[in-house]
Amino acid sequence: MNKQLRKAVIAGNWKMNKTPSQTTALVEEMKPLVKDAGCDVVICVPYVDLQAALAATKGSNIKVGAENCHWEKSGAYTGEISTEMLTELGVEYVVIGHSERRTYFGETDVTVQKRVRAALDAGLTVILCVGETLEQREQGITFEVVGLQTKVALGGVSKEELSRVIIAYEPVWAIGTGRTATAEQANEVNHYIRTVIAGLYDSAAADAFVVQYGGSMNAKNAAELLAQPDVDGGLIGGASLKAADFAEIVKAASK
Ligand code: PEP
Fold it and tell me: Which residue of 78, 131, 206, 207 has the fewest C-beta atoms within 10 A of its own C-beta?
C-alpha cells in the first residue's frame, strides 16, 4: 500500500488547556514555524477558543478543529455544541471519540457513530479516535477492539464521505503517559485499520485513507513513528502546546 498517495496530517489536540488570549499567543508563535509545512496542519481547541484560533490562523496554513460536537442539530442539550455552530464559525475539523471522552464522559461506540454522522452531514472533516486500553492489549484483543470501534463509527459512512474521515490510532495507555507505542506497534495497528477500511470499502479507499498515530508523540520520537509505512501523521496532545515541539513534529511529517 502506497504511502505516497496520502498527505500526512499533524493535528494538535489542546484539550482543556488554553484561554482565548493564550490561544492567540500560541498560534502567533506557531505560524512562522509551520508555514512551510509539507503536511496538513490542524489545531483542535476548546469551544471557547475557536474564534480566537480562527482569527489568528486566518490566511495561514493552519486549520482549526473542535474537540467534540453533538449529533442533534439543536434542542434541549444543555452544555452541548452543534455542528452548525461550528461550521458557521468556519471550523473545518472535529475530533470524535477521544479516549478521554469515552473514559470520563460516557462516550460509546454508538454515540461516536452519531457524532461522526452529524459531523459529515455538516461538511466537517472528522478525526476519529480509536484505541485499546492496556488491559485489552495484555489480553491480546487490540485488533478486535480497534476493529469494532472503527466498524461501528463508520456505519453508514459512504465511500465518498470517507475522504473527510481520518482515524487516529491512540492506544489509551500511551495518551498523556509519556509511554509511546513503539514504531512497530503503531504501524501494526495502523496497518490493521487500513485492512479494515479495505474490507468495508475497497483497497483504493484504504490506500488513500489517512491513519494517524497518537499517544505521547513528541519532537524526539516523531520522526521514527512518522517514517512507518502506515503512519500518516499524528494527533498530538502535550507536545502541541509548545510551538517549537509541535513545529518539529510538523517538520518530521513533511519529509
Ligand atoms: C491526545 O490527547 O490525543 C494525545 C495523543 O495526547 P498526548 O500526545 O499528550 O499523549
Answer: 78
Residues 38-95 pLDDT 10s: 999 999 999 999 999 999 999 999 999 999 999 999 999 999 999 999 999 999 999 9
- Catalytic residue list contains 70: no
Q: Which residues lie below 8 Å from residue 51, measured CB to CB, with a gap of 6+?
A: 20, 89
Catalytic annotation, pick one of 67, 100, 107, 170: 170
Q: How many CB atoms lie within 10 A of CB 178?
A: 9
Show the cell assigned to 5.
498517495
Q: How many CB atoms lie within 10 A of CB 49?
A: 26
- Identify whether 170 is a catalytic site residue: yes
pLDDT at 1: 58
CA distance 66 to 49: 9
CA 216 to ligand 1: nearest atom: 10
